[in-house]
Amino acid sequence: MRFIAISALVFSTACTQKQAAAPVYPQVDETAELKRRVAALETENHAMKERLTEIEGVVETQTSLLRNAIANNRANQGNRPPAARMPRRRRGPQQGVRYSIAIKDAPYIGSKNAPIVIVKAHEYACPACYHAQSFDKQILAEFGKRVQIVYKDFVVHPTRAWQQAFAVCAANKQGRFKAYQNEVWEKGFKQRRFDQAHYEKLAKDMGLNMRRFVRDRDGVCTKITRSSHAEMQAINVAGTPTYFINGKILNRRSLSEVKRILKEEEALYRKNRGKRRGRNYYRKHVVLDGKKVTRGPLPVVPANVPQNP
């Protein structure tokens, strides 16, 4: 009996030790892991779609510019004798050159008296410009009151973008630039609406003074917008969006590049500001001292603008 009891005790102890030595594996929630992977793939897919849209916008912009150049060339051919061969000029604003870019009457966001002015050449029918709004917000979030972003019109889709530009200018005359521009992007561009009546409705829904809106849109704003386009064209802006920081072109659209140039410009501002601050500094050291380029004739606005149903 004593042998049986001892044997049972040993057997029981051995089983217990074997169970204790067995590895314990953590429980894995397979559903949660799958959801995490799906979410990661969706985020990656969304980023790729945005990048594809931006590339499509650049291709569309360049195609439109090429078509316009071909049409202008054919219109100017006539019976002229063949011109002498001229040296090929590099397309686009020159790197490192500080251009004289006026900002009077141009709408802006950010600090009014910031010494660093970022000029953005853009239009409201350009997919790349639509996506570049996030870059503008990143700049303001990163640099705050140190900068001001000024918007200059440069129309590369002449049958689709002039009406929005005139309308935004008219809204700016009533101090509603930021809100109306957002409406133009969200309820105009995204819905592929480019007709004048649609932008009148947006202005009315916002409560703008419609008599003044129509008067400014058809009057002073046509001159302001066309002058802006001619000015950007004179310094060889080739597409949209194009950014200038205190008159110098931004080569790469990244916060690190903006930060690098901003540091240089702020050092120059501290050295040269004297009694001039903010816009007075920009006027003196960019508008008056920058490289001046002879502006060509104002562009003709096509009469055959689209009329959406």
Topology:
Elements: H1 2-21, H2 30-77, E1 108-110, E2 116-122, H3 127-131, H4 133-143, E3 147-153, H5 162-172, H6 177-189, H7 196-205, H8 210-218, H9 220-234, E4 242-245, E5 248-249, H10 255-272, H11 278-288
Parallel strand pairs: 2-3
Antiparallel strand pairs: 1-3, 2-4, 4-5
Entry summary:
The chain is of the alpha+beta class and 309 residues long. The chain has 11 helices and 5 strands; from the N terminus they run ααββααβαααααββαα.
Low-confidence stretches: 1-20, 86-90
The share of residues in extended strands comes to: 5-15%
Give the CATH level 1 class of the domain at 108-288.
Alpha Beta
* CATH arch. level architecture of the domain at 108-288: 3-Layer(aba) Sandwich
Q: Tell me the total number of β-strands.
A: 5
First-last Cα distance = 103 Å
Q: What is the mean predicted local confidence, pLDDT?
A: 83
Can you list the strand order of the major beta sheet? Answer: 1-3-2-4-5
CATH fold-type name of the domain at 108-288: Glutaredoxin
Helix/strand/pairing class, anyone? Answer: alpha+beta
Q: What are the secondary-structure elements, in order, as H or E?
A: HHEEHHEHHHHHEEHH
Number of helices: 11
Give helix % range. 55-70%
From the alpha carbons, calculate the radius of gyration and give it in angstroms: 30 Å
Looking at this structure, what is the CATH superfamily of the domain at 108-288?
A: Glutaredoxin
Which overall shape is indicated by the principal axes computed on the Cα atoms? globular
Task: Please supply descriptive tags for the structure shown above.
globular, alpha+beta, disordered N terminus, 11 helices, Glutaredoxin, 309 residues, 5-stranded mixed sheet, single chain
